[in-house]
Every structure is written in C-alpha cells, then in structure tokens.
Design goal:
single chain; CC-FHA_domain; coiled coil; CCD27 protein
Length: 195
C-alpha cells in the first residue's frame, strides 16, 4: 500500500509537470505565432518603405527582421525541447501507471495467500481442539482403567493397600507377584493331583 501511494504521488507529480510543460508549449507556440506575425508585418512594412528608398530605415528594419528571425529560431528550439520533455514525461507516466498496476496485482495475490493461510490456521486450530478433547477423553479413560487395576491388585488377600500414590512400576511388581503366587499355587495343586 505504501508503494502504491508513493507511485501514485510520483504519478501525480509527473502528470502535473506534464500539464505545466504542455501549458509552456502552448505559450511558446503563441509567442512563435506572434513573432511570425511581427516578422510578416515588418516584411510588409519593409516592402512599402523600400519603394520610398529610405536607406536608414531599411537598415533598421533589416536589423529588426534579423532579430526576429533569431527569436523565432530560439522559440522553435525551445519548442522542440518542450516536445521532447513532454514525450519523456508521457513515458514516465506510462511506466508509473504500469508499476501501480503491478503493485496492486501483487498486493491482491498477497491478500489471497494471506486469506488461504488464515483458513489453514483456523482448520489447524479446529483440529488441535478436537485432538485435545480426544486426548482428555483417552486420559480420563486411562486413569479410570489404571485406578481399577490398582484397586484390583491391592484388594487381594495378603496385599497391603498403598499409603501414597503408586507408580506404574509398583503396580506391575504387585501384579507379577500375584501371578507368580497363582502359578505356584496351581503347580502345587497339580502335584497333589487336584484338578
């Protein structure tokens, strides 16, 4: 947006300079026409006075004509320079307009990409929320299952109820002890012939 604003300011400056240059061109053209009219008037005057054979006046008129021709040449040179400057300014204006268009297109693409990223972020947040809910559900079920295992393990005959929180290793050791005792009892019954 800052780039577009800067380009638009440059565009406005160039367009203002272009208008000013065109105005100067029109003024130079008017001056050129005036000078040409003066030159024509002087030529007419020179023709009418030539018949009267006023040598001194003819020399003066010739000087004026020479001066006017020089002014016309200078005005034409300035007009050519102004035309060249107008052409350059028009090229600059066209380039700035193209840059503004390119910048707007780039910003539009960035906005579309940002919207796509925003949608992806919202989808990920939704999935994260679902995952957290599922994790809490699984954690709750696991804690209930663990609690039941601990209760079943330490409620058997001969087991001491835990006085503090039991670790997973302690639960496994207690379960292994119960399993070993059952296996020994089963083996003893088999040896005595009891089915």
């Amino acid at each position: 947006t800052g780039t577009i604003s800067s380009l638009q300011r440059q565009l406005e400056i160039q367009e203002s300079q272009l208008r000013r240059t065109k105005s100067e061109k029109e003024m130079l053209q008017k001056k050129l026409i005036e000078r040409e009219n003066q030159l024509q008037a002087m030529s007419t005057k020179f023709c009418s006075l030539r018949e009267q054979k006023h040598e001194e006046l003819m020399v003066t008129i010739e000087k004026e004509n020479c001066s006017l021709r020089q002014v016309v040449t200078e005005q034409e040179s300035k007009l050519a320079e102004q035309n060249k400057l107008i052409s350059e300014l028009q090229g600059t204006v066209s380039q700035l307009q193209a840059e503004v268009l390119t910048s707007r297109c780039h910003i539009h693409k960035q906005q579309r990409a940002q919207e796509a990223i925003q949608r992806q972020a919202e989808t990920l947040q939704h999935r994260e929320l679902q995952t957290r809910v599922a994790l809490e559900c699984i954690t709750s079920r696991f804690e209930r299952y663990r609690s039941k295992i601990i209760q079943a393990t330490f409620s058997t005959a001969g087991s001491k109820p835990p006085q503090a929180e039991v670790t997973d290793e302690e639960v496994l050791e207690a379960m292994q002890k119960i399993i070993n005792e059952r296996m020994e009892f089963h083996q003893m019954l088999k040896q005595k012939g009891v089915k």
